[in-house]
Specification:
Blueprint: H1 4-8, H2 12-22, E1 25-32, H3 36-42, H4 52-59, E2 64-70, H5 74-82, H6 95-99, H7 114-124, H8 137-140
Antiparallel strand pairs: 1-2
The structure holds 2'-deoxyadenosine-5'-diphosphate and magnesium ion (MG).
2'-deoxyadenosine-5'-diphosphate binds near residues 51, 85, 103 and 112.
Length: about 140
């Protein structure tokens, strides 16, 4: 999910391009201004953390772009494209390493495991994902 800072800074196209270029396949895309309800459900695991209220305020402050990407080991592949949480520590070449200077304003969220991905996809894409075959599949995978 591209966070409000990523959208405000005009990085939506750049970010989608990075995932597309890697070979992940886009199966869901939705821009919305998150309600408190969806933001709190999304970040429920961080409810007790000191940064939680600021995180909810930030994520509901403007439009986000929720994306669903699929591919072999898509979660770890995506997290490598994104980089570690703190933008100042993230390596150049990662999204956060290239565009973020902060731990909170770090441009993008990525699901951290299969169970959270399942939960988050249901939350942000209640109408499901698109099913389509990519013609280039046999060029991307052996
Ligand atoms: P990630 O987004 O890399 O999975 P996380 O799940 O630990 O990181 O935290 C979720 C978000 O909360 C993170 O993207 C930014 C914010 N956050 C995490 N740690 C923070 C901190 N120490 N201060 C402020 N915001 C923080
Ligand atoms: Mg996380």
């Amino acid at each position: 999910m591209i966070k409000p800072d990523g959208v405000q800074r005009g990085l939506v196209g750049e970010i989608i391009t990075r995932f597309e270029n890697k070979g992940l396949r886009l199966v869901g895309l939705r821009q919305l201004i998150p309600s408190n309800e969806i933001a709190e459900a999304h970040y429920a695991v961080h409810k007790e953390r000191p940064f939680y209220s600021g995180l909810i305020e930030f994520i509901t402050s403007g439009p986000v772009v929720a994306m669903a990407w699929t591919g072999v080991e898509a979660i770890s592949v995506a997290r490598n494209i994104i980089g570690p949480t703190n933008g100042r520590e993230a390596s150049p070449g990662t999204i956060r390493g290239d565009f973020a200077m902060d731990i909170g304003h770090n441009i993008i969220h990525g699901s951290d495991g299969e169970e959270t991905a399942e939960f988050e996809l249901g939350l942000w894409f209640p109408n499901g994902l698109s099913e389509w075959q990519r013609d280039a599949e046999s060029q991307i995978y052996e």
